[in-house]
Amino acid sequence: MPARFRYKTIFTWIIMVLMMVLMIALFVFKDTLISYASKGMQHQITPISKGIFADSVDQLYNYNKTEHSYKYTLIEFSGAGCSICRKMKNELDELNKTH
Question: pTM of the full predicted structure?
Answer without folding.
Answer: 0.43
